[in-house]
Structures are given as C-alpha cells and as structure tokens.
Amino acid sequence: xxxxAPYLRNLLLARSEWMEERVLxxxxxxxxxxxxxxxxxxxxxxxxxxxxxSELARRLAVSRQAVHQLAREAERxxxxxxxxxxxxxxxxxxxFSAKGRDMSASAARELRQIEDELREALGEEDFLALRRIxxxxxxxx
Length: 141
Hints:
Elements: H1 8-29, H2 37-46, E1 51-52, H3 53-60, H4 64-76, E2 80-84, E3 92-96, H5 98-122, H6 124-135
Antiparallel strand pairs: 1-3, 2-3
Helix pairs in contact: 1-5, 3-4, 5-6
C-alpha cells in the first residue's frame, strides 16, 4: 500500500515544534533554562500589556487553573508579576517583570536569528512566499 503525504496540519505542527525547540535552546544559552515549553507558549500569548488569566486561558485553549499554575511557576522564577486590573479591583492581571521583559527581548532576538537562518536555507523568494501565505486571512479568521 502506498504511503500518503502527511497532512498539512502535521507539517505545520512539526515546523512549529522545531521553532519552539530552537527558542528554548536559545533560552538555555541566554540564562533562562528553567523556562518550560508550556511557559514558552504562555509567554508567546501574553503581549506587552497586562492580561487576565481567563483571557490567557482562552488564547491557549487550556483551563484557567492550568494558566494560573504556569503563572505561579513563572512568578517564582521572577519572570512575571501579578498586578491589579485598572477596571476591576477583584481581578489580577499578569505582566512581564523587568527580568521577564529582558527574557522576552532575548527570545525576540532568537526568533529573528531563526528567521534569518530560514531565509538563508529557503532562499529569499520562498521565505517571503511562506510568510505571505501564512499571513493571509484563512477561513474562519
């Protein structure tokens, strides 16, 4: 029986996992080796403004409890801090601490380096085509 080509989903997941592994390797090189893959995903969805745990749970498609546990671990590492919400005194928001902002800047540099390596490996034309295709609006966006 002939083997069929992998689904596009599997190809995208494999490349996403490759990129995440490269970012985590960079974290180790830059002194943030205690960052777990789950924390890395949390950090990638936080943005630069305080965000609620419920919103992060929606963005990550996990439970609020799972996000809370990750946030507590990251807080113990000094990478995030809880701050009061400007709109609701009962809600605490999550934001990067000064150390976390440094880590985030380090990760951004790693991502730029990874993209530069991909540009070199794929060639400028294919690299730009890949970016253009992935940036398009997809059904359901």
